[in-house]
Amino acid sequence: MPKSSKALSDVQVRRLTHGMSKDGKPTVKRHRVGGVPGLLFTCKPSGGRSWILRAVVGGKRIDHGLGGYPEVTLRRARELAIQRRELIAHGKDPVSLERTKKAKLLEAQATDVTFRQVARSYIIKKSKEYKTPQQIRRLRQQFRDYVYPVLGSLYVKDIRRAHMIDVIEPVWESKNDVAQRVRGHIFKIIQEAIISGRRSDPNPAVWVGNLDVSFPAASKVAPRRHHRAIDWRELPDFMSALREYDTPRNSHPEASCFGFMVLTVSRPSEARKADWSDIDLDGEAWTIRPDVQGHKSGREWRVPLSKEAIEIIRSQPSAKKMEGRVFSTHRGVEIPDVYLSSLPDGLDFDAVAHGFRSTFKTWCQEHSITEEVSELCLKHVDTNATRAAYARSQLFEKRREVLTLFSRFALSGTAHSNVVSIRRRGEVGV
Q1: Residues in a beta bridge with 65
Q2: CA 181 to CA 49: how far, in whole Å?
């Protein structure tokens, strides 16, 4: 049992100071202030002052801090000391209780995190998986446009199924692929919160048996345009992502094939099946054979090759012998169609391979290229044999100029001014 002491007044407590050792050095001094057994006033040489309750709990002496002085007054210190001694009298450890209280507070604080806060960490980790800055930019854009307006300010622990519906419903039919991708990201973020203890309820982003009952199947929603295509202004970003994906060069042969397809405005099957026997490097042209799937004219068709397109094919391993397919896998076989069809989505661009022909068409429209020239670049051959012959003989060089400007734009984002200057000269049929 702590010794009882004469109760000190406020004035007397203020006058208390630190102690001195036998060799004259200042030391910590604990003063009994009375009023409550075991209540001590600690004075440090540094000037710090605080309250301590010294008691015995479970046969062990403990020093329980009650706070600093003067924030905690003498009167308040005695009140706290009485409360703690009552707990001890009932067999409870005030130190353990205080630790438990703090732990619960910290736990509550840990769960009081917003979705935006958790999403930021997710995006940082996810960014390390992506190969290009464009992919990271698109991920951030998706969260900014579709997720944060609904979930951003909500605590992760409070997100419900209704919130998920609010995110998905506006884009489920118009941008179904985006909606599915966004839902997948949200699912992973919330699942991580569950694992880390920030959420105890089930994941509201689960699809099967949960969200799927509120939406028509993806295969049944209103169809998108025939070929998903990126905006022509995005093309330089895509080509940059394509180059970064194929770093070091030819690490992904399908990327070179895709780039060649874009610059020649050809169909995926035509680019995949291009043979070196079809390439005329001196004439800077590529002849597409009638037997190549995707070519609809029934005749050979010569495609002018830009310097950039030629650079791509010259960089291929097959260029050493100039035999067989121009583009092939590391095993030496033809690039599979699935490699090209899946590449834009893999780089996080909302498009299909064939859709880049539509991108070229809109680029032509925006730059006042005549319908006749742009259609011939796309190999949309008029059924009139006379006109087709005229197109091959008279518009080949005009097509070359257009594809050269298009290649320059695709790889650098420039060429607009050049198109305008040529339009003024009337040399591109514009």
Answers
A1: 52
A2: 59
Cα distance from N-terminal residue to C-terminal residue, the chain: 104
- Domain 10-107 and domain 115-220, same fold? Reply is no
Check: CB of residue 263 under 8 Å from CB of residue 306.
Answer: yes
pTM above 0.85, yes or no: no
Residue 415 or residue 131, greater confidence? 131
Q: Where are the domains of the chain?
A: 10-107, 115-220, 232-425
% of the chain exceeding 70 in pLDDT? 83
Distance of CA 177 to the CA centre of its chain: 16
Q: Given the structure tokens 């319908």, which residue do they identify?
A: 371
With CA atoms as reference, report the closest residue to 353 among 244, 254, 246.
Answer: 254
Closest CA to 149 of 113, 119, 176: 119
**DSSP category for residue 153:** T
Closest CA to 27 of 41, 37, 42: 42
Measured in degrees and rounded to the nearest 5, phi and psi for residue 275 equal -105, 155
Alpha-carbon separation of residue 287 from 234, 262, 296, 299, 379 (angstroms): 29, 16, 14, 10, 12
Domain 10-107: CATH architecture, name and number where available: 2-Layer Sandwich (3.30)
Place of tokens 């769960």: 111
Q: Which CATH class is domain 232-425?
A: mainly alpha
Stretch 216-240: mean pLDDT: 79
Residue pair 228/351 in contact by the 8 Å Cβ criterion: yes
pLDDT of residue 331: 87
How far, rounded to the nearest angstrom, does the alpha carbon of residue 83 sit from its chain's CA centroid? 53
For residue 236, the model assigns a pLDDT of 94
pLDDT tens digits, one per residue of 303-322: 999 999 999 999 999 999 99
The answer to whether 16 touches 48, Cβ cutoff 8 Å, is no
Is 63 in a helix, a strand, or coil? strand
Question: How far apart are the C-alpha atoms of 143 and 149, rounded to whole Å?
Answer: 9
Q: CATH 2.60.120.460: does it fit domain 115-220?
A: no
The whole-angstrom separation of Cα 265 and Cα 259 is: 10
Which residues, other chains included, contact 130 with Cβ-Cβ below 8 Å and sequence gap of 6+?
A: 136, 139, 348
Q: Output the six-digit token pair for 188.
A: 């992973």
